[in-house]
Each structure stands twice: as structure tokens, then as C-alpha cells.
Amino acid sequence: MTTSKTRAVVLFIITLVASCNAADTAKSQPLAPAILIFGDSTADTGNNNYHPNANFKANRIPYGVDLQGKAASGRFSNGKLYCEIIASRLHIKELVPPFLQPNLSDAEIVTGVSFASAGSGYDDRTMLTTKAIPVSYQPTMFKNYISRLKGIVGEKKAMEIINGAIVIVSAGTNDFTLNYYDLPTRRLDYPKISDYQNFLLKRLENFVKEIYNLGCRKMSVGGLSPVGCLPVQMTTKLRSGKFRKCVERENRDALLYNEKLQKLLPAIEASLPGSKIVYSNIYDPTMDMIKNPTKYGMFTLLLPQAISIVS
Fold this sequence. Notes:
Elements: H1 4-19, E1 35-39, H2 82-89, H3 106-111, H4 127-130, H5 138-153, H6 155-164, E2 166-170, H7 173-181, H8 193-213, E3 218-222, H9 231-236, E4 246-247, H10 248-271, E5 276-280, H11 283-291, E6 309-310
Parallel strand pairs: 1-2, 2-3, 3-5, 4-6
Helix pairs in contact: 1-2, 5-6, 8-10
């Protein structure tokens, strides 16, 4: 089912493509030559299934129940991930394979893959807990991808594909939950949440510049969702009473991080000639879904106070 979150992001990406003069708008023609995906579980289409040390793997039901074959595929979803819905709407491909999947066809390589890993983050310390593939290592995977792509289509065509590809970057939540809120390892280094946010944003900036230097030009960088409404956060912060509630402080932190990111991205874009870098608002559509589930065809057995927000 297409949600408000998906519609908002798809519209955003289509706007990105149009603003970059991505030529043919015919319905049957791809609006970009490929899609390249980096990040965490929100973008991992199955890499962790082939990463033996990873602690988080979506290799069991109910994951994948709405995919063809109704089998878990490594996606942390009942069906497609939002980035794959974007790929479909842009007529690139229906499913985006994980780069670590064995025996990837040349055709799959040419139209793009995911390098994301569930449990990943911008802070390398996050991976001490999750054993995921760090965001900082994903450009190394990308370099291997580029080498194979050049072997398929030649160096010139390969760079044309990468220059024209839609690049999705989605990470950050694990850094806050695993390093600051639940396991406060980073609080010793950054007593103020604003300082840790700045540290992560610098890591994000370095990452964007690294993949730009490898040829990426059209990028969508996702902000944080309402972190305080994640089930794990509501459960660990459960107070007396029967119902879990969103943690307002963590949601405020997410909003502040998103505000900083929105200011940072235009500055990064200005420093990288030929780039187009846009901010993807995940927070507002997700919060609307939480507050108004029936609007999206969902329902809850919980009473209204179960999803109220408290400090």
C-alpha cells in the first residue's frame, strides 16, 4: 500500500529528476538510468543476509509476506522498501537487489543496487553493537560496483550512468538509539545532544562528498523519523500504566537534527559543482500516519491514549 510517506518521497525524487533535466518523461521510459542506495534497515534490500556477522536480518516471516512468493527476502518490510517504490515510480526497476547478493546479473548491476545494511549508521561505533556494514564502508562497496559496471558497459557509459543515477541516503536513527539513548556510550564524548548531532552531520557531509567524488550527482538525503515513536523506544521508556507512549524529548531531538540537516545540505550542494542534493522529509508523513492511521487504511486495537505523546 502506498503511504503518505512514500508519496511525499516519490514526489520529491521526481522533482529532483525534473530539476536535473532528466530527459524523457514518457511513462514507459526510465526517468533515471539507475538507482543507488546507501544507509540502514530503511534501505537494506537484503545485504545483511549475506553479511555473516550482522545481528539484524529480516530472514523470517512476517517479513516479505506481500512480496511475490511470500518469503522473507532480507527487507525489513512486509513488501517493498520505500526506495524500491521510488525505483518503480521512476520506471527504473521493480525491486532493487542487494549488492552482496551472489550471481547478480549484468542487467541488475546496470540499473542499480543497494549497499545499505540494517543496523548501520554514520557513527562507526554503532556497528560495535549491530555488526552491520558501516555507512563509512559502503563507498568501498560502491567502488567495487563501479569496477564491475565499467566491465559491463565501458568506462564512459558507466560514469554516465552513475552521474545520472538517483542516489538515496537513509541513516541516522541507529546512531541515536544505540549510542545515545539506550546505550549511552557517546554521552561521555558528547554530553549535549546537539554536539552529537553536529558530529553525525559532519560524518554525513564527509560521506556525501566521498560518493560525489565517485560520480554521484543527484542525491536525496533522508532526515530522521519520529525516533521517540519507535516501538523499542516507547517500550524501554515505559512508565507506570498500560500503554506505551511516544517519547517527546527524542522526537524534539529528531526535529532539531532535521532542521540542521536542511540547512547543511544546500551548503554541501554549493560546494560540489554539478550536484543536486535534496532533503527528504520522513518525519512529518510518518507522524501523520501515527496520529491518523485510518487515513491510510490502517487500524489499531489500542485506545487513542496509546499513541499520545508525552515528555
